[in-house]
Amino acid sequence: MTKIPDIIASSAQNAAENTAQVAAVVTVLNSLDAMIYVADMKTYELLFINDYARKKWGEPGNKRCWEYLQTNQSGPCAFCTNDKLLDENQQANGVYVWEFQNTQNGHWYQCRDEAIRWINGDLVRIEIATDITDRKSMEQELEAARREAEYLAGTDPLTDLNNRRVFFNLGEQVLKEALRFNCPTSIIMFDLDHFKLINDTWGHNVGDAVLKRVADIAAATVRTADILARIGGEEFAILLPQTDLPQARTLAERIRKAIAADVLLINNAPIGVEASFGISSCEECGELTLTDLLNIADQQLYLSKKHGRNRTSAHQVNP
Ligand SMILES: Nc1nc2c(ncn2[C@@H]2O[C@H](COP(=O)(O)OP(=O)(O)OP(=O)(O)O)[C@@H](O)[C@H]2O)c(=O)[nH]1
């Protein structure tokens, strides 16, 4: 197919004005701070590239667009937009704008692709690609910061567990689902026994280490669908979707025994801690709110404390 330099070279003397106009257009295209190329849509032959492309990708020789612009391509690119540039009647479909990370130089480009009529009347592809790497990395940094902020807003910094806010947000959703699908739901609450004594004897930092250790034990025991949170100073809660009371009790006992069996060594001194558990469970949760269920679990926790601590009490809520 005819390339622009061929047009300039082959123009007859009496078409000098024509030639000058084409050369002027090429000069304009070469002065732009964007990569521009034109390629045959069937053979992928490069019909025009501007100086910007030459500076970044070198001389094209006889390379086709996919050989010239990308690496490791043994044929046309899988992400080639040619099919988006023509409609079902093989007519130009307008402008298609997309963003792409170039496989040769790793830069990000915003590409503006279009099928246009070439000198011989054929539809060809023109791409105008602007380097947006700086903007993209700023966007990526912002996105990472947003995700970090979101994570921190929902995470208890000491234990890395969900915080109270997330527990309530997710919990309300779980209860709605339970109501919709008529599933049993349970809540386990637990609270360390005589934790004040640990703080008073060993200091607040050791108390923190104990809280972290207890959180790790609980986190290692629950299933991924369970919502484990630190909802107060030394108070934890686990919302158990699709879990009836016997199952919740089994889990609570497993965690309780694991906490009681654990020994934390601080300066070679063994520190042990125990916890009391309360469970509430509903088979058909009806109009029960998360707060209702949590309050019932809290009452059961209080009973465990009252009856000697390091134990589990449970209540089945009637529908
Ligand atoms: N180290 C540490 N201590 C905390 C934190 N949050 C709350 N506490 C402490 O937890 C202790 C709770 O004391 P109490 O409410 O009397 O409960 P307890 O000593 O565990 O007694 P029982 O619950 O009745 O068995 C207090 O000393 C609080 O200062 C925390 O983030 N880190």
Report on the structure:
It catalyses: 2 GTP = 3',3'-c-di-GMP + 2 diphosphate. Its cofactor is Mg(2+). Its EC number is 2.7.7.65. The protein has 319 residues and is an alpha+beta fold. The chain folds into two domains: 4-135, PAS domain (Beta-Lactamase), CATH 3.30.450.20; 156-317, Alpha-Beta Plaits (2-Layer Sandwich). It is built from eleven helices and twelve strands. It has helices at residues 4-10, 16-31, 51-57, 65-69, 82-85, 133-154, 164-181, 195-202, 204-221, 245-261, 290-306; strands spanning 35-40, 46-49, 96-101, 108-117, 123-131, 185-192, 227-232, 235-241, 263-266, 269-272, 275-282, 312-317. Strands 2-1-5-4-3 form a five-stranded antiparallel beta sheet. The protein is elongated, with a radius of gyration of 34 Å. The N and C termini lie far apart (79 Å). The structure holds guanosine-5'-triphosphate. The site of guanosine-5'-triphosphate has 16 residues, from strand 6, helix 8 and helix 9.
